[in-house]
Automatic annotation (TrEMBL):
Keywords: Membrane, Transmembrane, Transmembrane helix. It comes from Streptomyces showdoensis. Residues 207-238, 771-794 are annotated as: Disordered. It comes from the Bacteria. The keyword Membrane applies. This is Membrane protein. The chain crosses the membrane at residues 85-103, 115-135, 178-195, 258-277, 289-309, 329-347, 362-385, 397-420, 449-470, 516-537, 549-576. The keyword Ribosomal protein does not apply.
Length: 794
């Protein structure tokens, strides 16, 4: 039972609200005291204080010299049991969702902004279809059609015996085998729906604070992909992350979940209908029913596309509506049509035998071409959006969204092609599918080509990797003079200087990430085109994947295919193992936590099956706490965020009404606000957005180190009587050699332990001095405020 927050008797106390970063932290670590108590919250995310500080508001005289520390622990929102490692399998969906938020900033141009959102949502839809089609390829084509239809292959797999065509059982007919195997991809789609629906209640259900109707805000936001009905609301003048509906996406997620679930079911139905269509005669009852089923599939597929394109995010107001009819009937209709298709496919056809492969080449080829066209279109729209304003710091000149969308398609293609090839190798035993020498024909030719480009892509990555390593070594040497100048040491130590210079050079590698992403995306686009061309050159004939090439090229491509198949199998196991370790081992979590926590920070705006957005819980938590505490006490508050916690802190401050922001100071350290978010998400964290935050919050200071690979300056200059946000870079280590104050060598801290630097306390004290004096509140007013807060939360 957590202790209740004490009812204040005076408003003299100041509060420091600590928010940790991606590595996670315990309340004891953050408060530097093993005796902590939960003030408010639950086991997933909560506020903690030292036990000695629980009654701080009742005794403000004790805290005249320091603020009351209070820690917000949110690490359980992104970590937990090992089963969450399976979320790593949803990585293509998460990356596609990131592309939605990477559009360039713009004023007006609402149609282009909506078109950008529509194109990203269509890319996300193709990924769902691709994942389901890959599951159909493995379950229906490779297993039920090819292996079960081959006596030699089925004879090596005892669990396929009852499906074997040679046994002549009830399930031996190809249509019935396919209908039974369709349960696997159908269950996969159902699992994705279940996971999305389950996380919905834990994240999207957290309502942000009310009271926006009287708070128009000072800054005009960039255009967003919103409903036109919201265009005239007074909250239009809010910055994007400060809009009342930004962190409440239930309506869109529910709508997209229904559409993607229906698309998955329709993909399975299309695989069954395509198989039966090749056998059914043009006349007769089965042929007529097949044409009816195919027509229904086309009509429902068009409905899904319309649902995806018609509505984007609604941010300008808190939209509590749910289109329950659409959410329920669209997946149900697709599932019913799938059942009818399975019944039609499984109908007795005595003369039907399974030979060759199912018609999957056209489907995978169409998907690949559609994804390439959508990414190119997305790039054109991004260039049009960025034309009026060009910030040189923006990643890839505003093409970060299309590049990341290309990476999402590449991840989906590599996973689908590699897994299909690996399963085919496993089913074929000692044979080699795709060469005409195995027990089964193998996967579609395009998937064989996609598996073969994996080693080529890895080889291409060696070139920029080697260049970055050489540049880092040269930068380390050139930084030696700067290091010795910063410390002004009378007796320089070459070893110590080299360590510090190397730390600074390695930290600068983060700024090279856009170039690396651009190289990978460009190479992926070219290799994808080469895969399509290779499949086309071989005539899309299974078993003759590389027949159209020269003998040496065919031999190399076959070797690359086999290597790529084994690499994707090994990578799949490594992926899951690494993910499980990351959610149990804090040190391993820090390794991949940057990308993962950046990806799941953003709401699910493009793909409903992406991992859930933890900020839709964390940001309302912080906003509620700051609003309620300042209203009840009239005191001063410093929200202090480290690393990803600084992004949560900034997002929460944006959500505050002006009266509350006037009593809040923002302290960020090790912050990726500009270095990562400002460059990759310029519409939301670009120079204008961060400048607007500087103008709206009462005061803001940022601390950073040259050895920090994640945090950096926010580059917000002084404006009027407001000083620049960035303080001078902290020296790391704090002492070059042994001194009286530091008799032992000090470590190079990099991204950690900012609070150990004396400058941290000085920056916090300066912010508190700049805040207005505390306003004593009467007990009756505090109780009234508390009551109104409770009514608004209900």
């Amino acid at each position: 039972m957590s202790p209740a927050t004490p009812d204040p008797k005076s408003g003299g106390a100041a509060l420091e609200l600590l928010v940790h970063g991606v590595g996670g932290a315990t309340a004891a670590d953050m408060l530097d005291d093993p005796r902590t108590a939960r003030v408010t919250g639950d086991r997933t995310a909560a506020m903690y204080r030292r036990r000695d500080d629980l009654d701080a508001e009742d005794h403000p005289e004790r805290y005249a010299e320091r603020p009351v520390p209070e820690a917000y622990c949110w690490s359980n929102l992104t970590s937990g049991n090992g089963a969450r490692a399976l979320w790593l399998l949803l990585l293509p969906f998460m990356v596609a969702n990131l592309a939605h938020w990477m559009r360039p900033p713009t004023e007006g141009r609402a149609r282009l902004v909506r078109l950008y959102g529509v194109l990203v949502r269509l890319v996300a839809l193709t990924l769902t279809v691709l994942l389901t089609a890959s599951a159909c390829e493995v379950a229906l084509d490779l297993t039920a059609w090819q292996c079960a239809g081959s006596g030699a292959c089925a004879g090596q797999r005892s669990w396929l015996g009852f499906l074997s065509a040679e046994r002549g059982g009830w399930w031996s007919q190809p249509g019935r085998r396919l209908a039974l195997a369709a349960v696997v991809p159908t269950a996969l789609v159902g699992l994705l729906w279940y996971l999305s629906n389950r996380t919905w209640s834990a994240y999207e259900a957290q309502r942000p604070p009310a009271g926006y109707e009287t708070d128009p805000g000072p800054a005009r936001p960039p255009a967003s992909d919103t409903e036109s009905a919201d265009a005239a609301t007074p909250t239009e003048l809010r910055p994007a992350l400060g809009r009342p509906g930004f962190w409440y996406g239930r309506r869109l997620v529910a709508r997209l979940r229904a559409a993607h679930t229906a698309a998955g079911f329709l993909t399975v139905a299309a695989a069954l209908a395509g198989a039966a269509a090749r056998h059914d005669p043009d006349g007769g009852l089965l042929g007529a029913l097949g044409r009816v089923v195919q027509s229904a599939l086309v009509i429902l597929a068009l409905v899904v596309v319309v649902v995806i394109c018609r509505r984007g995010r609604s941010e300008n107001r808190l939209d509590l509506r749910i289109e329950r009819a659409l959410v329920s009937w669209l997946p149900a209709s697709a599932l019913l049509l799938l059942a009818l298709t399975a019944l039609h496919t499984g109908w007795s056809r005595p003369g039907w035998t399974s030979t060759g492969t199912l018609p999957g080449d056209a489907a995978f080829g169409t998907l690949t071409l559609a994804q390439g066209a959508l990414v190119v279109g997305l790039g054109v729209v991004a260039l049009l959006l960025r034309r009026p304003r060009r910030d040189p710091r923006t990643a890839l000149f505003g093409l970060g969204g299309p590049a990341v969308a290309m990476l999402a398609c590449a991840l989906g293609g590599v996973m689908s092609g590699g897994i299909a090839q690996r399963v085919a190798d496993w089913l074929d035993g000692p044979g080699t599918p795709g060469t005409g020498e195995g027990l089964i024909t193998g996967p579609p030719v395009l998937l064989s080509w996609q598996a073969s480009v994996i080693p080529v892509l890895l080889l291409l990555l060696l070139v920029p990797g080697a260049l970055l390593a050489a540049r880092t070594a040269l930068a380390s040497r050139s930084l030696r003079a700067a290091v010795e100048s910063d410390y002004a040491s009378a007796d320089p130590d070459p070893v110590r200087t080299g360590q510090i210079a190397a730390g600074r050079a390695r930290a600068a590698l983060t700024d090279s990430a856009p170039g690396l992403v651009g190289v990978v995306s460009g190479a992926t686009l070219l290799l994808g085109a080469a895969s399509v061309a290779g499949a086309w050159a071989s005539g899309n004939v299974p078993g003759r994947a590389f027949d159209g090439a020269h003998a040496a090229v065919a031999s190399a491509a076959t070797a690359a295919q086999a290597l790529g198949s084994w690499m994707i199998g090994f990578g799949f196991l490594l992926f899951v193992t690494w993910g499980r370790r990351a959610y149990k081992d804090p040190s391993a979590r820090r390794t991949i936590g940057i990308l993962w926590d950046v990806g799941t920070f953003w709401p699910r705006a493009a793909h409903p099956f992406a991992p859930p957005c933890y900020a839709e819980r964390a940001v309302p938590d912080l906003t509620w706490r700051m609003s309620s505490w300042t209203r009840r006490t009239g005191g001063r508050l410093v929200i202090s965020g480290h690393s990803q916690g600084s992004v949560l802190a900034a997002a929460a401050v944006w959500q505050l009404p002006p009266a509350t922001r006037g009593r809040v100071a923002l302290l960020t350290y090790g912050s990726p606000l500009e270095r990562l978010y400002g460059r990759w998400f310029p519409a939301y964290f670009g120079p204008e957005a961060l400048g607007g935050l500087h103008r709206t919050v009462h005061c803001w200071s940022n601390l950073y180190r040259a050895t920090d690979p994640i945090g950096g300056p926010v580059r917000v200059p002084a404006e009027g009587d407001r000083p620049a946000v960035d303080r001078p870079a902290l020296l790391d280590p704090v002492a070059y050699g042994r001194t009286r104050e530091h008799p032992l060598p000090e470590p190079i801290l990099g991204h950690s332990d900012y609070q150990a630097d004396p400058e941290f306390a000085a920056a916090r004290a300066a912010l508190l001095d700049r805040l207005p004096p505390a306003l004593p509140r009467q007990r009756g007013n505090a109780e009234a405020d508390q009551g109104s807060s409770g009514r608004s939360s209900g």
